[in-house]
Design goal:
The chain is an alpha/beta fold. The chain has ten helices and seven strands. Strand 5, helix 8 and strand 6 form a beta-alpha-beta unit.
Length: about 280
C-alpha cells in the first residue's frame, strides 16, 4: 500500500504566529516593567558578558521574578501563555490546512521551532495543534520552581531540530539518533516535504537549510510595520527564502493560498517519484 506523504509545517513563534515576544503578554507586566525596559536589560547582559541573548533573557526572567517575589512554575508560565496575542486567522489556520491536506491525500503535521519558552507556548490557545514543540525550557527544583535554564534555542540550535523532525525524533536531549546515518527512503519527513515559517534574521539558518534541500521557506511580515516587510524582501532577494507573505492566516489569505499550492506540488512530486521506482 502506498504511504501518504507527510508534510511538516514548521513555525517560529514570536513575530511569526504572534506579533510580539511571548514574555510581553503577562510576565513582563507581572514584574512591573515595560517590554522596552526588560529587553534593554537583557541586551545589556548579553553585550556586557559577551553571552548568548537567549541565556541572557532566561537569566533575567529568573532574577526579576525572584526580585519581585514571583514564582516561576510550569503552571505560572502556562498562565502567561493564555493571553498571547496571535495574528489574524491563526486560531483556525491549523485545522484549515489539515482539512486541505486530508482532501488532497497528504498528512499534515505542525511543529514549533522557537527561541521562546516551551512552557509558555504550552499554555497558549493553539498548543494542541502541534505535533511537537521545540523551544527553550527551564530545569525545575523539587518544589516545581524554575532554577536553571534547561534548553536554550538560538538561531543555529534551531537547525538541529529540523533534522530531528526529518527522522521523527521528539527528544530535545537526544544527540545520538539525530546524527545516525539514515537512507533517504527511511527518513520520516524529507526536507522536500517541509514548509518553514519565520520572520527575521534568527530564522535564516533554518530557512536556508530547508530551501537548500528542496523544501520551502516562507518569510512572514507584519503588514503594519514597513521595516518588517523590508526584512522579508531582503531575505527573498538574497535567496534565503522561497516566498514572502503578510502575517495573515485566514482561509482567504495569500498565506493559505500559497501553502495550498505547495501542498499540491509536494503531492504531485511524491506521485511522480512513485513512477520513477517502477521495475
Amino acid at each position: 500500500m502506498r504511504r501518504k506523504p507527510i508534510i511538516a509545517l514548521i513555525y517560529d513563534f514570536d513575530g511569526t504566529l504572534s506579533p510580539g515576544n511571548m514574555q510581553e503578554f503577562g510576565f513582563i507586566q507581572a514584574i512591573g516593567q515595560t517590554p522596552a525596559e526588560f529587553w534593554d536589560k537583557s541586551n545589556r547582559i548579553a553585550v556586557g558578558q559577551d553571552a548568548s541573548n537567549i541565556l541572557a533573557y532566561m537569566k533575567l526572567m529568573y532574577d526579576e521574578a525572584r526580585a519581585s517575589g514571583i514564582k516561576l512554575t510550569r503552571e505560572d508560565f502556562a498562565r502567561y501563555g493564555k493571553d498571547i496575542k496571535l495574528y489574524e486567522g491563526v486560531r483556525d489556520w491549523f485545522q484549515n490546512v489539515n482539512d486541505y491536506g486530508k482532501a488532497h491525500g497528504v498528512i499534515i503535521e505542525h511543529y514549533i521551532n522557537s527561541s521562546g519558552l516551551t512552557e509558555i507556548i504550552e499554555g497558549s490557545p493553539i498548543a494542541s495543534a502541534f505535533k511537537h514543540i521545540f523551544a527553550g525550557s527551564f530545569i525545575y527544583d523539587e518544589k516545581g520552581e524554575a532554577e536553571w535554564p534547561g534548553i536554550a534555542v538560538d538561531y543555529t540550535a534551531k537547525t538541529q531540530y529540523l533534522f530531528k523532525i526529518q527522522k521523527g525524533i521528539f527528544s530535545s536531549r537526544d544527540a545520538e539518533k539525530v546524527n545516525e546515518s539514515l537512507a533517504d527512503e527511511a527518513k520520516r519527513i524529507p526536507f522536500t516535504n517541509m514548509i518553514y515559517f519565520g520572520d527575521g534574521e534568527t530564522d535564516v539558518p533554518s530557512m536556508k537549510l530547508v530551501s537548500m534541500f528542496g523544501g520551502n521557506a516562507i518569510a512572514v511580515f507584519d503588514p503594519s510595520r514597513p521595516a518588517k516587510k523590508a526584512v522579508a524582501q531582503k531575505l527573498l532577494r538574497q535567496g534565503r527564502v522561497n516566498f514572502i507573505t503578510p502575517a495573515s492566516y485566514t482561509k482567504d489569505s495569500r498565506t493559505f493560498r500559497l501553502v495550498c499550492a505547495i501542498i499540491d506540488k509536494v503531492k504531485a512530486d511524491s506521485e511522480l517519484h512513485q513512477f520513477s521506482r517502477y521495475r
